[in-house]
Amino acid sequence: MSSLPALGTHVVVVGAGMVAHRFVESLLSRADGRWRVTLIGEEDRHPYDRVGLTGFFAGASADDLTLDRSIFDDDRLRFLRGDAVVRIDRSARRVTTRSGLSVGYDRLVLATGSYAARLAVDGFGLDGCFVYRTLDDVESLEAFVQRRSAQLGRRLTGTVIGGGLLGLEAAGALQGLGVDCTVVQSSDRLMSAQLDLPAGGALRRLIQSRGIRVRTETVTTRLDPDRSGQVTGLEFRDGSYERTDVVVFTVGVRPRDELARSAELDVHPRGGVLIDAGCQSSDPRILAIGEVANFDGQCVGLVAPGYAMAEVAATRLLGLDEHSGEASFPGYDLSTKLKLSGVDVASFGDAFARTPGALDVVYADPVAGVYKKLVLSDDAKTLLGGILVGDASAYGSLRPLVGGALGGDPVAYLMPEGGVAAPTGDLPDDALVCSCNSVSAGRIRHAVHEEGCSDVAGVKSCTKAGAACGSCLTMVKKLVTTELAKTGANVSNALCEHFDLSRRQLFDAVRISGLHTFSAVIERFGVGRGCDICKPVLASILSTLVGGHVLDGENATLQDTNDHVMANLQKDGSYSVVPRIPGGEITPEGLLVIGQVAQDFGLYTKITGGQRIDMFGARLEQLPDIWRRLVDAGFESGHAYGKSLRTVKSCVGSTWCRYGVQDSVGMAVQLELRYRGLRSPHKLKLGVSGCARECAEARGKDVGVIATEAGWNMYVGGNGGFTPRHAVLLAEGLSDEQLLTAIDRFLMYYIFTADRLQRTAPWFEELDGGIEGLRDVIFADSLGICADLDAAMAAHVGSYEDEWAATLQDPEKLRRFASFVNAPATPDPSLAYVAERGQPRPATAEERRDGGVLIAGTTLEVRR
């Protein structure tokens, strides 16, 4: 496949998708007036963002998804939309369209993309069956759901066949339309092309926690109709049957290479136009880019490789050479990040450790629902790839380092926020930050220093970094911030790409404006539709300023994974139940109730470090029944699932202890009942010790209270975890009333002004004057805000409502607590337990006879 010199006259592009748009944009931005381009698109639309297609169900319009239209103002471009090319005459160098139009070309670029495959099963064409590929597809799906639910007068059930990236996004879209959804996957795990077995298991639990049912190792054999021809059920290979009202097929894509075949271009046996590294086909005048192109035996349905091909093709046609040698397609970057609110998943590089001698570094925290793996070279220095489930915050930092040295302990990249600090050294200039648009760290630096870009939006516009899937924006922001700081410029502390405000500024904006919903806030103060960063932050802010139930209205869609069902997801897909036990004080009757509930539901029980009792192994559909009994006995939610007050730990104090000088239990109970349900930027823990012997370990808490003969000493800013901090003395000899006022103001000042996920210690250290400045605010009212802080806390205390008690009274909220939408009381068959030390525990993979276990418990290990 030798390359011909560019002819420089007329280029015809067949297909008007994202890759075609990128090619035309790149070509015309560098070409002179001799070049003409004709773009022919089958859809009667301008090119739009298929990567963001799920946003359609979150309120995005077709116009919102439309790509930059400015290129169509170029006189050198003619755009024929709503017309499809049906024939290529290679000898005459002409294409013929469906409407009969004949267009000559000097060079032809095939960017016809792919089509969504359907299963070859009976019934795939029934009414109510859809694919998930184009805007027409999603518009038709939405219209059908609205019409069908109105006809039936009930909530619909839906099935997504295919559990890959697109399938999970389609399931989220169906759920957003109010459809109870099941994902059916033929392999043993979700996203099997990107995730290993334990990662797939972790993802399954996250998906199920959203109320989406998952069936793996399930093959659909038939779709059944009702009398009117509407799909009504599915039959599976194992003989089981499931009722459904709507089916979405996401079982893969196939390259649209029929034009190339009829024109007798070389095509791979499994599909796709064969190309060389210059994107040239077997005809030297025809190039192929995107999903229709087959390079090195592969066709890949990701936008990043398509964009790379578009740039190579444009550069080759123009005869330009921006680097040494000819522009060449480097091969496929298969890095992916799932775009589903509340489900954080990413995979990049050699995720399956296929490189000889590769090492795995694995971290798993089943309690938090997190699984992370890095794949390293045999000397443990070079990053080869990785998988992140439950917490993909490091994706933007790690993916650019693939093929290079990590520059530090790999463990640092896997630890949760607040743990071991990851290396902060600069990325090398050649590190690829945005794989979708092939933007390197050096290119971003050049935009800041040489092109005058002063914020992320400017860099995004200038370089296209983050303009496609957006998963790299966190890393782009870090780079821009670092480079601006080097110039001495003021650096933005924007919350995310959707809000230019910091959390503190956003808090003030919501408080002053009086807005009560996420949609109203983002319409006035932000852009776009929000993300998994700003949505939980707004949920917390609105909880403080507006109140209301965590699952009311829009709030239900903003919450993190555990808040969706007000319980902590565990490693096996079950949940833990943690009733509040203020100050660790509990009556014998209360103990009996907890013991009886645990026994009746077969739960594992454990005394926690916060002096309460945790019950593990509850199934989703059991949670309301468990909580009904606990609420009837006087218990309430312990908020173990939220960024809020967790516990107030205490010793027995002066009531029983011969060393105690004050009633620490009474004070701890008072504090816990006062601050229960208080949402905050990070979790909060308090402790009260009855004397200086400090048995309650109060100085390891966000607020620590220690009794003395002269009154209460108040400490702030302590925490345990990976980076333990000792609390600092704030005030001495406080009375009960003075102590409550001081804690009220400290907590509210923190909630008003802290950054997202910032704990109390780093927060007050960053305040003007540090601890002394904090004292001035709380005790001397140096900012004149103490009345506001007092009023805010009074409002919280006065409006407190137990979330679980309220949920039990609301049938609509109770609908989300079902393992299976068509059989709500049926136990999840994937849950299995064995007895150990007289209590149930999750069965291991070996005990299930499903293979080996990589990680058990919260474990960090290195495997060769």
Short structural description:
The protein has 26 helices and 39 strands. The protein is an alpha/beta fold and 864 residues long.
Total of DSSP H or I helical runs spanning 4+ residues: 26
| Rg over CA atoms | 29 Å
> Segments where pLDDT lies below 50 for 5+ residues?
1-7, 321-325, 418-424, 850-864
Beta-strand percentage range: 15-25%
What's the mean pLDDT score? 85
**Arrangement of strands in the largest sheet:** 21-22-25-24-23-39
Distance between the termini: 42 Å
The percentage helix is: 25-40%
Written overview of the protein:
The chain is of the alpha/beta class. The longest helix has 18 residues, at 135-152. The protein is globular, with a radius of gyration of 29 Å. The two termini are 42 Å apart. The model is unreliable at 1-7, 321-325, 418-424 and 850-864 (pLDDT under 50).
Describe the SSE topology.
Blueprint: E1 10-14, H1 18-30, E2 36-41, H2 62-65, E3 77-81, E4 85-89, E5 94-97, E6 102-104, E7 107-110, E8 114-116, E9 129-131, H3 135-152, E10 157-161, H4 165-176, E11 180-184, H5 197-209, E12 213-215, E13 220-225, E14 231-236, E15 241-243, E16 246-249, E17 253-255, H6 258-262, E18 273-274, E19 286-288, E20 293-294, H7 303-318, E21 336-337, E22 345-349, E23 359-365, E24 370-376, E25 383-389, H8 395-398, H9 411-414, E26 432-434, E27 439-440, H10 441-449, H11 456-463, H12 473-487, H13 503-513, H14 518-525, H15 534-545, H16 555-558, E28 568-569, E29 575-577, H17 588-601, E30 604-607, E31 613-618, H18 623-632, E32 645-650, H19 664-675, E33 684-689, E34 703-708, E35 711-716, E36 728-734, H20 736-753, H21 760-766, H22 770-779, H23 786-799, H24 803-808, H25 811-814, E37 833-836, E38 839-842, H26 845-848, E39 859-863
Parallel strand pairs: 1-2, 1-7, 2-3, 7-19, 9-16, 10-11, 10-16, 11-12, 18-20, 32-33, 33-34
Antiparallel strand pairs: 4-5, 5-6, 8-17, 13-14, 14-15, 21-22, 22-25, 23-24, 23-39, 24-25, 26-27, 28-29, 29-31, 30-31, 34-35, 35-36, 37-38
